[in-house]
Amino acid sequence: MVGILSSAVFVKLYSPEELGGLSLFLSLALCLTPLTLLRLNYALVNENDDHNIGQIFDLWVFALSIIMILLAVAVGAITIFDLQWYDLEGGTMIALLLYIALSSAYTMLTFLLVRQEAYRSISLNQVAQPSARFLMVVTLYLFGAQNELIIGYLLSIVAMLSLILIQCRSFRYRVLEYGIQIEVLARTYQRFRHLIVHSFATSIPNGIANNVMPIVVSMSLSITAAGYIFVLQSVVAGPLLVISGVVWRSIYARITKYGDIRKRKEVVSSVHQLTVPLISGFVIAASMAAELVSHYIREDWSPIFGIVSAFVAMVAVNTISNSMSYFIAFEKYSSEAFWNLLVLAARILPILGLPYVIGDDMTSINIYFTLVALVYLALTLYWARFLECLKSYLFDLARYLLPSLILSRVILDSSRDFSVYAIIFGMLFVLYIAQGAYRAAREVLCLQ
Question: What is the pTM of this model?
Answer without folding.
Answer: 0.77
